Amino acid sequence: MSDLTNVLPVAHAILPQLTQRRSPRAYTDQAVSAEALQQLFTAASSAASCFGEQPWRFIVGSKATSPAAFEKILGTLAPFNQAWVKQAPVLAISIAKTTFSHDNNPNAWATHDVGQAAATLAIQAVELGLQIHQMAGFSQEGARTAFGIPDGYQSVAVFTIGYPAAADAVPADLRERELAPRTRKPLAEFMFEGGWPQPADERYDQAPV
């Protein structure tokens, strides 16, 4: 079932899953099945990557099936995030392999490719009635220590996976964030056809505060 809370208004028609993707903080306690998780990470694996390296790795902690891992991921998060994340049924860490497997040279595009995989996963989640919320507020060293992540791999983000709940499931301050209107910059601020804009053409002043 689609999540129709705070659907993103757009000027040009795009896939509905893209307008419905959001980053909620309110989740139900419904468990995410193993089959659904496998679908999500299969979607992630379909993303493009430099040299077909697929540098993404994911550590998953489910309250239902791997509660110890869930608690370890939770422990890497900043206190603000911990306060609401503990309601989610699944947590995951996205990780980038920082060298190419075919020659061991540095892969400068690894985190870009991990981001592509996570974005693809997020859209598949919408199709399944799920949402994810990606976070930078975590300790990379904490994650490395908690899970023995070896050298040559870099934690990129932590994200929730779950079925979104009504906004009143979270405290008032977070509820405002859940329901705040969603906006995006106009194309003129980031799509530069033909070359970099000259000062007379720049429209950065139109960015929403």
From TrEMBL:
Q: A single Gene Ontology molecular function, please?
A: oxidoreductase activity
Q: Which UniProt keywords apply?
A: Oxidoreductase
List, alphabetically, the Pfam families matched.
Answer: Nitroreductase
Query: In terms of domain of life, where is this protein from?
Result: Bacteria
- Domain named Nitroreductase is located at 19-163
In terms of InterPro entries, this protein maps to:
Nitroreductase (IPR029479), Nitroreductase-like (IPR000415)
Does the keyword field hold DNA-binding? no
The record's annotation in Gene3D superfamilies points to: NADH Oxidase
Q: Which family does it belong to?
A: Belongs to the nitroreductase family.
Matches recorded under PANTHER family: NAD(P)H NITROREDUCTASE YDGI-RELATED (PTHR43673), NADH DEHYDROGENASE_NAD(P)H NITROREDUCTASE XCC3605-RELATED (PTHR43673:SF10)
The identity of this protein, by name, is Nitroreductase
